[in-house]
Amino acid sequence: MKDLRDANKGLDSTKFSQEKSITEYMLKHQALQRELEDKENLIGKLNSLLETTKEQKDIIEQNLADEKAKTAKMLDKLSFSKSELENAQKYIDKLKKEKKSLNQKIKTNNTVMMQQEA
């Protein structure tokens, strides 16, 4: 009977040890499960942030392309305006020369008329 009691104590001790190990493994499993869920949530948030960042990048690139197009158009207008101003300046210079020539002719005509009257 004593042998049976000793064997029973040994089995109880083994059972207790195994239950303790099972409890430890279950706790470890739960902790790992929570860690996995946290990491999955973090990955989801990072993917969302990445998608938002890509969308913002696309918008910025489109805005940049629009601004480059506007700049090119303004440069074309500026070049055209410069050309027009250069042409206007040439015309003004031509008119000044004609005025000077006409003033010279008037002066010459006045001198000739004065000489004829005298």
Describe this structure in words.
The protein is mostly helical. The protein is 98% helix and 0% strand. It has one helix and no strands. The protein has one helix spanning 2-117. The protein is rod-shaped, with a radius of gyration of 50 Å. The model has no long low-confidence stretch (mean pLDDT 95).
Topology:
Blueprint (H helix, E strand, L loop, with lengths): L1 H116 L1
Order of helices and strands: H
Mean pLDDT: 95
Strands, count:
0
Q: How much beta, percentage-wise?
A: under 5%
Identify the overall geometry: rod-shaped
Number of helices: 1
The helix/strand class is mainly alpha
How many angstroms does the end-to-end distance come to?
Answer: 171 Å
Which stretches of 5+ consecutive residues score pLDDT under 50? none
Rg, nearest Å: 50 Å
Tell me about the largest β-sheet.
Answer: none
Q: Helical residue percent?
A: over 70%
